[in-house]
Design brief:
Helices cover 56% and strands 14% of the residues. The protein has 16 helices and 15 strands.
Length: 667
């Protein structure tokens, strides 16, 4: 092929295919890698979460065991029967509260008493009772408060039990309220609160409660501060276990709250509020566990169960609370622990900084759908068997971390691909520019060669013409002149072929229009070619054997055939230094026409047969070292023949000669 431009296009096509192919492979690899990367991240996250969950539950279990052992140790100590000794547990963060009960199931802590309405009132028989009855008659029947006061004071003097004294004080306080001696009433109530804090009346009702109820009835006390102090004293008594709780405690607390709302004057209000809520917590504590403890009491004390501890859930209220109840004689203790403080302390001791990702560890409520939600990226674990309503949830702090990481990867790969494609497009652009430039320079070169050869052709034609004129009258020339004439003819013949070949070559390079084929008489064309070369062959002393069949017609471009034939004849002359014989045949065989040019010269080695048709190719051997040439002759010849739908074949044996055959189709 002579066309350079086709090579350029081939290169461009190869370049585009390579770009598409490698771009597709890169895209495929990036996509595959990104999805692998996502899977890897998810795997790593779920591994870390699982690890964390296992660690956390095991630490939680350890924590629970250490708490249980702290509680158990209490019963091995000397204070195992001492309610006050339990106070030392208050420094434990994990402990919310505790209860202590005696072997009959009564609360030792918090201090609780039950009203005993069934107890019968004993008839007054001693001096105390007499005085008291007289005082009561004065107070309630004759309404003689002065006298009532005197008799109450008398009965106080002769009172023998704490309960009787408290009763007198209580009656006196009531009387002073009726008499409008508020200050006196308050002072007496203070005495009851401080000195008779746990004294109960015959029905098991604390006298202190009566005092408070009375105080609250004084709507407009002279001294609020003193009044509030008394209320605080009462509340603290309840908190410290000096004053018992009973079924009326809550009601009384509500009355205090209402009173407080009505007279919001003092700064101690907050203190009052805090104390009320502390007492309420104690009441709630009792309410939450009373029934369960009642059941255990029956169970325990009848069967003598000696299990280490029982865990009891509160009846209502906070599900994050749990009582670990240790049954012991004579005092059993229930330690109420809180999940939150335990959770926090376990969490604090977790080593979270050696993890690759940041996680949230939360306490969540156990719901039906928790486990449905359980995915690779969220782990749940239970606090079995302690806090069964709660779960530990381990999840990523930043839930979008995978998407973000994958997005970053996508951006990087996308940029990489973009750069790759950008480089490819740039490369393609430069390649196209290069091919265009090369095409342009080739055209310029071919134009230049064509112009030059055209210019050379004109003087050469004149030289040839004059040489032939001289040749016609060569009888008149002397030997020297004949010799010079021969040289001129030989060289100009050579020059003519050279120029024709170059012109033909540049015509191809410039993609000029192809030949116009005509039905021509090939026999005439071959003959006329030989006639033109007659003198050239003669002076080269060649013996030419001609075998031409008459009038063979073909659709050809005559001038082209002439040029091809003269190239082949000229080669035969050039490469046959010793055996100067040439056979030219023109014949028809089958459906084809053959023009053969056979010489008996140096021949061509088999392996070079295909190469000799390539442009500028020349065989380097000793035999043709002295023969000059351009390597264009056979290239141009082959192109001329093929353009006329023919073929150029070679048969040759090294040292024996060559036969070139032009095969054409008949007209
Ligand atoms: P050139 O003759 O100018 O070198 P060609 O294209 O005509 O270029 O031929 C190419 C080569 O083929 C020659 O250099 C020569 O070695 C070989 N060749 C061509 N014709 C013959 C032949 N008839 N006998 C031997 N060798 C030949």
């Amino acid at each position: 092929m002579l066309k350079f431009s086709e090579k350029g296009s081939k290169l461009i096509v190869i370049f585009i295919i390579t770009a598409i192919f490698s771009g597709s492979i890169l895209t495929y690899l990036s996509v595959a890698h990104i999805s692998n990367y996502k899977e890897l991240l998810e795997k790593k996250i779920s591994e870390e979460e699982r690890d964390l969950t296992i660690r956390f539950t095991s630490d939680f279990q350890d924590k629970m065991e250490s708490l249980i052992s702290i509680f158990s140790n209490f019963f091995q100590s000397d204070h195992s029967q001492d309610v006050q000794a339990l106070k030392s547990f208050e420094r434990l963060n994990e402990l919310v509260n505790y209860v202590a009960i005696d072997s009959l199931g009564s609360f030792l802590w918090p201090y609780v008493v039950n009203n005993d309405l069934s107890s019968e009132q004993t008839k007054p028989s001693n001096p105390y009772s007499n005085e008291l009855r007289t005082a009561q008659n004065n107070e309630f029947i004759s309404k003689d408060f002065k006298n009532a006061e005197i008799y109450y004071l008398k009965s106080l003097k002769v009172a023998e039990t704490k309960s009787d004294s408290a009763n007198c004080y209580n009656s006196l306080a009531r009387l002073y309220v009726k008499m409008g001696h508020h200050q006196k009433a308050i002072e007496i109530d203070q005495t009851i609160i401080t000195d008779f804090s746990s004294t109960l009346n015959a029905f098991g009702f604390p006298y202190v409660y009566f005092s408070i109820i009375k105080l609250l009835r004084i709507k407009n006390p002279a001294n609020f501060e003193q009044f509030e102090k008394l209320l605080l004293l009462f509340l603290n008594g309840l908190i410290d276990g000096e004053i018992p709780l009973n079924e009326s405690s809550e009601e009384l607390l509500d009355s205090i709250s209402e009173w407080k709302k009505e007279f919001q004057l003092s700064q101690n209000n907050d203190l009052l509020e805090q104390s009320i809520s502390r007492v309420k917590k104690l009441i709630l504590l009792v309410d939450n566990y009373k029934i369960s403890l009642e059941e255990i009491k029956n169970d325990k004390f009848t069967k003598g169960n000696s299990a280490n501890f029982l865990s009891i859930k509160p009846i209502s209220g906070n599900p994050d609370e749990l009582m670990l109840f240790f049954k012991h004689e004579p005092m059993s203790v229930g330690f109420v622990i809180g999940l939150n403080p335990i959770f926090m302390s376990v969490l604090e001791n977790q080593q979270l900084n050696n993890l690759k990702f940041d996680f949230n560890i939360n306490l969540v409520e156990k719901k039906e759908n928790n486990y449905i939600l359980n995915s690779d990226l969220i782990q749940f674990a239970t606090f079995s068997p302690y806090f069964e309503d709660r779960l530990i949830k381990v999840s990523l702090k930043n839930e979008g971390i995978i998407d973000q990481a994958v997005f970053r990867r996508k951006i990087i790969y996308g940029l990489g691909l973009f750069l790759f494609l950008g480089t490819m497009v740039l490369g393609l652009y430069l390649l196209i520019q290069d091919v265009k430039r090369e095409k342009r320079t080739n055209k310029l070169r071919a134009d230049f060669v064509s112009n030059i050869t055209h210019e050379l052709k004109t003087p050469l034609t004149s030289i040839n013409m004059f040489a032939e004129a001289l040749n016609m009258g060569k009888d008149t020339l002397d030997s020297k002149q004949t010799k010079y004439l021969n040289i001129i003819v030989k060289e100009s013949e050579k020059l003519k072929r050279l120029i024709n070949n170059i012109l033909e070559f540049s015509r191809k390079e410039n993609d000029k229009l192809s030949y116009k084929l005509q039905n021509s008489n090939l026999s005439e064309i071959v003959k006329s070619t030989l006639k033109e070369m007659d003198y050239f062959l003669e002076i080269n002393k060649f013996e030419v054997d001609l075998a031409i069949e008459k009038n063979i017609f073909a659709n050809v471009y005559g001038e082209g055939i002439k040029q091809a034939l003269s190239n082949l004849i000229s080669n035969a002359v050039k490469y046959s230094a010793s055996n100067k014989k040439l056979i030219i045949r023109l014949f028809e065989s089958g459906s084809e026409i053959f023009i053969e040019v056979e010489d008996f010269g140096i021949g061509i080695p088999q392996e070079k047969h295909a190469l000799i048709f390539e442009k500028f190719y020349r065989i380097n051997s000793d035999e043709n070292e002295t023969v000059s040439g351009t390597g264009l002759g056979l290239t141009v010849t082959k192109a001329i023949i093929e353009e006329q739908y023919g073929k150029l074949l070679v048969e040759s044996t090294l040292g024996k000669g060559s036969k070139f055959t032009i095969v054409l189709n008949p007209a």
